[in-house]
Fold this sequence. Notes:
By secondary structure, this protein is mainly α. Helices cover 79% and strands 3% of the residues. Strand 2 and strand 3 form a beta hairpin. The N and C termini lie far apart (71 Å). Mean pLDDT is 78; it is low at 1-21, 236-240 and 278-284.
Amino acid sequence: MYESKTFSLDRIHPLSQKMGQLTILLIKEIYYPILAVVGVPANLVTIVTLSRGNCGLSKCISIYMVAMATGDLLVMISNIMAYRIFSYHFPHSFLSHTPVCKFNLYMNVVSLDLAVWFTVSFTFDRFIIICCQKFKTKYCTERTAALVITMFSILAFIKNIPVFSAFESEQIINKLWWGCRPNPAFVSSPFGAMFIWFYSIWRVWIPFTLIVLFNSLSIRLIIVASKARRRLRGHSSENQSDSEMENRRNSIILLFTISGSFILFWLTESVSFVTTRVTNPNKYQGDHTAPPYIAAETGAMLKLLTSCINTFIYAATQRKFRQELKKGLKYPWILIEGLIKNEAKTGVAWLHSG
Length: 354
């Protein structure tokens, strides 16, 4: 969380230096623009496609998936575009004014919180569907999904207000505050230390634990239920299709792919956060060749990749989503073709009238 905005350290211009010791900086300069170019349209298309309600999904699960795509889009805008691209390449723009910089860092934290806890909410909803048959009719509803999403959104915005106090101005130029850096008074205070550890536990370890727990219980019940269903169907029905099992299988593939990719891509960043950023946020500032720094940056790149891949997971696992996605991608061309045909008809009519 506490990344220093010291642009002079990260932007070392001589090409020979970058090609040598600062390879990680070159990778970042290429990686994040590509991620933004792919991730922003992908999440926008996902939101539009799911919102139309033609993907064969219940309204409840559609709300969670739209929320996850919205959280991922916010991550793309605040964490990648505003912070890691524009602020990095334009260090003297209005984004570097301390109030704007603090707000950007605040939105970085909020957007990641939303993306993480929307994923946990989705996992819990699927767990209820699979494991709690009596409770699912009350919990797995459109109203409950909207309430859960709203509750976590409000909590994320309120919980992260101390981020504004966690950073201070780097320098004053022409009576204007510029840049953001960790506030030593906040970091060294008991409240600051408690907030940093709470931040780590709330952002990473609680979600990891809940996702693993819910998925483990779901897998156990699915295995037991599948064996029982095969016994009930008997040998005479072995070759017949089982639509219920097929739907359950597709739902499980979607759930495990989303939660599995989340854990996989967040794991490196989580470990590096605990071992480097929590104990001493400024320890590796300026040393871009230190293995902990490289591990932290690699973890950040993998973590942010999760906000880009859910669209591809949906397309790979959901047949109706692929169909709607194809329709959506074809629509602009169909519209253009229709306009061209109308213009051609108008031109022919004008020639005949002349």
